[in-house]
């Protein structure tokens, strides 16, 4: 049997977290281009940053933590010194190229991670430039591809996903990637590092790799939740929503309550469907989410629907499905029967933490925010974003402790983890 192929670093996942650290491992190094934002100068670290201005990954992250600054927040502010984007002339953070290290990216999706699978016309939750990765900015993508889009506006999936694909090409990540491959296990290698078992889709051929470091960025919906009720796999039940025209007929029942289900319910209603919306949560929580999200046009729309509907938008709170019947009748927990043409299950998912079970227990905390981010997150060293339990394991994206739902925040955590890896490899 051939020996496993070895790489210094294996990045699992090609979402914004994986792409962001991939660019740093590929040799794109951050440096200062403009003035240090006043927020950091006020902490007395402006001179420290300027002293490292040509190689910001050498900044003393422990010193930052000691000064009350979270390193991921430092790089977030350097990337986005203001909430609005005023053009490349106001950029503080630039990048230069050095030789890459030996690394490999493995992902069952194309670059962009879960954004490849969101509904066809899904809008971002935040301004487009908050979704970008610093080495190659969104406005440069718009300019190069001839798109007349304001980076400060919300943008659709059809423009965001091509940006992530473009980023992977521009940063030189694509040749490093095994896209369409599923990691089935992460364990310990005989040499003391990591072993990674990979299944090639759809052939299911098994490949083996080893590495000294793992960046684990599988995303928050690797394992889609399922309803454990009779009939959940009947043909009229869909477990993914893409577009209203996939669901002909008049009557659709949606099970969910988060943003994906809200998007589906709104779009289907506006396409003329009669929508029955079933949620386990209470009405007050759902209405609070709607009111807190009025900066988003589709939440303005769902409020209008609720306020003006005359019977085509039926909501059931504190309710769940008891069974899906063969005759396309759905029994709710209360005993009510709803006849449908289609049912859509949008109840979210969970990170594939089971892939790491052979590495021993991980200290976890519950991550939540008002926008319904709900997942367990891995406790990390705030100066390095290394797991406190497993040396040389670095959760990325939403998975480290304290990360919220926006790329605006989570992109910053790739800098301290890349700095720690590169320092251990003698490359800083």
Quick synopsis:
By secondary structure, this protein is α/β, with parallel strands linked by helices. The chain is built from 12 helices and 21 strands.
Notable traits:
428 residues, alpha/beta, FAD/NAD(P)-binding domain, 5-stranded parallel sheet, 12 helices, 25% helix, 24% strand, globular
Structure, described:
The chain has 2 domains: 5-222 and 350-424, FAD/NAD(P)-binding domain (3-Layer(bba) Sandwich), CATH 3.50.50.60; 227-347, FAD/NAD(P)-binding domain (3-Layer(bba) Sandwich). The chain has 428 residues and is of the alpha/beta class. It has 12 helices and 21 strands. Strands 1, 4, 5, 6, 7, 8 and 21 form a 7-stranded mixed β-sheet that branches. A 5-stranded parallel β-sheet has the order 10-17-11-12-13, covered by helices on one side. It has helices at 16-25, 38-41, 46-51, 61-66, 71-79, 138-145, 157-170, 259-270, 283-292, 297-308, 407-410, 414-424, and strands at 5-12, 28-32, 93-97, 103-107, 177-179, 181-188, 194-200, 205-216, 223-224, 237-238, 251-256, 274-279, 313-316, 321-324, 329-332, 337-339, 342-345, 349-350, 364-368, 374-378, 393-395. The mean pLDDT is 91. The chain starts with a strand and ends with a helix. α1 runs parallel beside α12.
């Amino acid at each position: 049997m051939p020996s496993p192929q070895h790489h210094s670093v294996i990045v699992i996942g090609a979402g914004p977290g994986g792409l962001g650290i991939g660019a740093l491992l590929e040799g794109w190094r951050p440096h200062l281009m403009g003035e240090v934002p006043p927020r950091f100068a006020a902490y007395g670290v402006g001179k420290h940053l300027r002293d490292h201005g040509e190689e910001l990954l050498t900044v003393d992250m422990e010193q930052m933590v000691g000064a009350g600054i979270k390193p991921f927040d430092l790089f977030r502010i350097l990337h986005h010194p203001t909430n609005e984007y005023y053009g490349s002339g106001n950029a503080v953070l630039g990048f230069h190229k050095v030789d890459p290290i030996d690394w490999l990216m493995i992902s069952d999706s194309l670059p962009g991670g879960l954004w490849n699978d969101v509904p066809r016309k899904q809008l971002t939750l935040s301004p487009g430039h908050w979704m970008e990765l610093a080495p190659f900015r969104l406005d440069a993508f718009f300019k190069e591809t001839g798109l007349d889009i304001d980076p400060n506006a919300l943008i659709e999936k059809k423009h965001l996903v091509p940006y992530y694909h473009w980023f992977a090409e521009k940063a030189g990540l694509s040749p490093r990637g095994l896209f369409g491959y599923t990691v089935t296990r992460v364990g310990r290698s005989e040499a003391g590092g990591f072993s990674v078992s990979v299944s090639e889709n759809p052939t299911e051929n098994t490949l083996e790799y080893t590495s000294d470091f793992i960046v684990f960025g599988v995303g928050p919906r690797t394992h889609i939740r399922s309803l454990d009720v009779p009939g959940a796999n009947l043909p009229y039940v869909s477990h993914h929503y893409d577009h209203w025209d996939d669901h002909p007929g008049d009557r659709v029942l949606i099970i969910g309550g988060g943003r994906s289900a809200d998007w589906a319910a709104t779009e289907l209603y506006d396409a003329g469907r009669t929508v029955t919306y079933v949620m386990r949560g209470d009405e007050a929580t759902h209405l609070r989410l709607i009111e807190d999200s009025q900066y988003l046009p589709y939440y303005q729309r769902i409020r209008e629907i609720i306020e003006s509907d005359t019977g085509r938008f039926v909501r059931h709170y504190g309710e769940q499905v008891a069974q899906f019947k063969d005759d396309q009748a759905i029994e709710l927990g209360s005993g009510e029967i709803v006849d449908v043409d289609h049912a859509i299950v949008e109840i979210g998912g969970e990170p594939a933490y089971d892939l790491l079970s052979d590495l021993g227990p991980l200290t976890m905390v519950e991550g939540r925010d008002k926008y319904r981010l709900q997942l367990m997150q891995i406790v990390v060293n705030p100066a390095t974003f290394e797991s406190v339990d497993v040396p040389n394991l670095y959760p990325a994206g939403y998975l480290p402790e304290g990360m919220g739902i926006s790329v605006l925040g989570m992109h910053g955590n790739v800098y301290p983890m890349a700095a720690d890896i590169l320092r251990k490899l003698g490359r800083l």
